[in-house]
Amino acid sequence: MAGPPLIGAALEGAALNGTAGRPGPAAGVELLEAVRHELAGSFGPGREVAEWRAVVSSHAQEFATTPPAERLPELAADLQLLRASAAAGSAALAVPAAELAVLIALTLAQLGRIRAAGRWWRTARATADGSTERRIASLARSWEVTSGLAEQRPLRDLLELAGDALTLADRPDEVARALAARARVLAAMGEAEGVGQAVRDLQAAALEERAAASTSPFEWSIAETYSVEGRVWATLGDTPSVYVALDQALGLRASETTERAELELVVARCLVLDGDVAAGLAVAMRVLVELPDQWHTHHLYDTASHVLAAVRGSDLGRAAVWDFSALLRRRPFENRSVGSGSSSSGQQG
Q1: Is the pLDDT reported for residue 211 higher than 60?
Q2: Which of 162, 209, 285, 318 could bond to 181 as cystine, CB 3.0-4.6 Å?
């Protein structure tokens, strides 16, 4: 006897694609997920949108606690399922689609696949702009700016994107992320006065948001306010302000593996800037050695490179400098297998 129409159609599609005769675990899981999402959307488009928003929320909440090489295949699989959805052309589903695209772009950048990340950032922006919410259009640009600093994107382009993100932001958390992105670009440009104003505006927006302790890239947390302050003051060389801000940030980041490691590298950079080169290099080497390989990212190594760049003069001849340089060249994420393929170059697409 034939099954219900939805399940029957899905099974027929599987047979046409050659999967029905291969009862392997992967094919079975994919088929069941496709059927489940189709079933969820069969009782009205509102149900399907709610289903996909829940899926994306789950990915976002687990983003900081799942290594990027493990995260990417699951993100791609869910985006493929969303695209195959009966209502995938709807503006409402463009919101979770854009959010998944942002998470994929950020993950690719973390894995050092910069060209591929660039393509996904453009896709994320275009999808967000076709959605029903300004929120994701703002957040997509803010995250592109933040990641773009490590991707070595032109600062003027990033500053323009940050301005667009701020224009599109209409809630305190969106404003905070856009201001954070703008502050970091201005710091990289050496614009101390602009940074100071951006930080003050960020503090005001974060206070209005009453940010919670969230790990989602789409929500703001008080820990991020301190993290951004520490990063921008480190870029400008204001080390006393860095220590104050990062002491607060590190106290709130105990369980976030890579983010905490990056902040410890910012502290290491400041120790070097303050003349305690041996201590700074020791902290930086400890971070890279103790952090498990699956958590090493392009962004982490970009932050670590600033520790080395802070070493000057005769200190460049220290044995620890050579040891740390060797650690920076290791970059395990560049040869990490992802799904059925692998990334073998920092610029692989």
Answers
A1: no
A2: 162
